[in-house]
Structures are given as structure tokens and as C-alpha cells.
């Protein structure tokens, strides 16, 4: 009965590789997000999708490409991984509209060697 | 651009004491202010939120106050317990659902 789930939980990879993180929510929400939390714990929005449509696209390198096949899923593909991409990536979901609670997934800890 | 400042970055209190965390936002259009708690190795979870038409909200030992004129809001935890130890984040959003998070406060409650 997990509300927001992500896979994998841990990801260790070499510089230059391409990797994907998957997110699914079963809350019936129509909006999903990707956040990056760096080693100093700063939590920053990267993208948001509403009903499969990209809404927020912060200043993120275009090596990061989100994809939303349906409103319950939001994946994040990262090309040519760099050391600075090492972080915890959180997926979240909410009902569309201002002031709705965002529910976070368990996070994916990405380590680039 | 939008910015949320949060202080202090670390806070240590004795069990039973109160803890206060303060945030200031820059975007005057902000009207939703949630607080998230993140335990070590876990996901952020909403503990309380407040909207701009309210000045204060309380839920058991947790309260949040909002001063729209000064553009700041605060989290108050009374009768702290060791399980309150975590990182707390304030956030603000305006007409969209984009949340701008503060830099976090690491709260340690010593028994």
C-alpha cells in the first residue's frame, strides 16, 4: 500500500554512464515532481508534471530528461553522469493546484564514481 | 527570484524545552507555507502547514505563526522529545504548486 515508490533505492555508477530512476504513485494524484537533495541537505525542485504535461523545468542540465508515460508514473533519465550529480533524488506527488500537500517517495541515493 | 531563508541551521535543546525555527520569504505572492520533517535517511513528511489568510495554526505540540507584512513564518515545538530530532524544512509557494524550500534546520533533542 506504498503511496509513492521509487526504484532503485541505491544507484552506484561510473562517470559518463546513463541511468534511469522510476517513480510511481497510487494516490490518484495528477501532479508529480522530481527534487534533488545534495550533501548539504538542500532540497530543490527540478521538474513537475501535471497529467503528463511538463509544468516546471528549473535550471537543470539537459542531460536530465523526465518522462511521464501516464499521470501515475514519472521517470528520470540522466545521460553522461557527472560527479556533481551525486545526490538523493526524491519523487513527490500531489493534487494539482496551489496549497496541496506533496507526498514524497523514499528517495534514490545516486553515487557517481 | 524566489528565496526562502531559514534559521538556525542547527538547534540543540534539552528534552522538555521549546524549539523555534524561523523562515523569511522573498516573494510577496506566496500564500502557502508548509513545514516538513525529515528523519535521518527518510523522506520529508509534512507536519503542519498554514495559508496566508490565517495568522496561527496549532496541532498538539506543534504550532506555526505567519506574519505576512514582515514576510516571515515560524515553527514552534513545545515539550520537545528525543523523537523530534530531525531536519526541519520550511517552504513557500505562490500561485503555482512550486515549493521553494528553506535550507533546513537540524534539531537535536537531548534526553
Molecular structure report:
Chain A has strands spanning 4-7, 10-13, 19-25, 31-37, 43-50, 53-57, 64-70, 73-78, 87-94, 103-104, 108-112. Chain A is globular. Chain A contains no helices and eleven strands. In chain A, the strands form two sheets. In chain A, strands 2, 4, 5, 6, 9, 10 and 11 form a seven-stranded mixed beta sheet that branches. A four-stranded antiparallel beta sheet of chain A has the order 1-3-8-7, with no helix packed on it. In chain A, a hairpin with a 2-residue loop joins strand 7 (64-70) and strand 8 (73-78). Chain B has strands at 4-7, 10-14, 19-25, 32-38, 45-51, 56-59, 62-67, 72-77, 86-92, 100-101, 105-110. In chain B, strands 2, 4, 5, 9, 10 and 11 form a six-stranded mixed beta sheet that branches. In chain B, a hairpin with a 6-residue loop joins strand 4 (32-38) and strand 5 (45-51).
Structural class of chain B: mainly beta
Average of the residue pLDDT scores of chain B: 94
Structural class of chain A: mainly beta
What is the rounded distance between the termini of chain B? 41 Å
Number of helices of chain B: 0
- What radius of gyration of chain B results from the CA coordinates? 13 Å
The total beta strand count of chain A reads 11
Ends distance of chain A: 34 Å
Low-confidence stretches of chain A: none
Which quaternary structure do these chains form? heterodimer
Quick one: overall form of chain B? globular
Order of helices and strands of chain B: EEEEEEEEEEE
CA-based shape of chain A:
globular
Largest sheet of chain A: 7 strands, mixed
- Count helical runs of chain A: 0
Mean pLDDT value of chain A: 93
Amino acid at each position: 500500500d506504498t503511496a509513492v515508490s521509487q526504484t532503485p533505492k541505491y544507484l552506484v555508477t561510473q562517470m559518463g554512464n546513463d541511468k534511469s530512476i522510476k517513480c510511481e504513485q497510487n494516490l490518484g494524484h495528477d501532479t508529480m515532481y522530481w527534487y534533488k537533495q545534495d550533501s548539504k541537505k538542500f532540497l530543490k525542485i527540478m521538474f513537475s508534471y501535471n497529467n503528463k504535461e511538463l509544468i516546471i523545468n528549473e535550471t537543470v542540465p539537459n542531460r536530465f530528461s523526465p518522462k511521464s508515460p501516464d499521470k501515475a508514473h514519472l521517470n528520470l533519465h540522466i545521460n553522461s553522469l557527472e560527479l556533481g550529480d551525486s545526490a538523493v533524488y526524491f519523487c513527490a506527488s500531489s493534487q494539482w493546484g496551489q496549497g496541496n500537500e506533496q507526498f514524497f517517495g523514499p528517495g534514490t541515493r545516486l553515487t557517481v564514481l | 527570484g524566489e528565496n526562502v531563508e531559514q534559521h538556525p541551521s542547527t538547534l540543540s535543546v534539552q528534552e522538555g524545552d521549546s524549539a523555534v525555527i524561523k523562515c523569511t520569504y522573498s516573494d510577496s505572492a506566496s500564500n502557502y507555507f508548509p513545514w516538513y520533517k525529515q528523519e535521518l535517511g527518510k523522506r520529508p513528511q509534512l507536519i503542519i502547514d498554514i495559508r496566508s489568510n490565517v495568522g496561527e495554526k496549532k496541532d498538539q505540540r506543534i504550532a506555526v505563526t505567519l506574519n505576512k507584512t514582515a514576510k516571515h513564518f515560524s515553527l514552534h515545538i513545545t515539550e520537545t522529545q528525543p523523537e523530534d530530532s530531525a531536519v526541519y524544512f520550511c517552504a513557500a509557494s505562490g500561485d503555482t504548486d512550486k515549493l521553494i524550500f528553506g535550507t533546513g534546520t537540524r534539531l537535536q533533542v537531548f534526553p
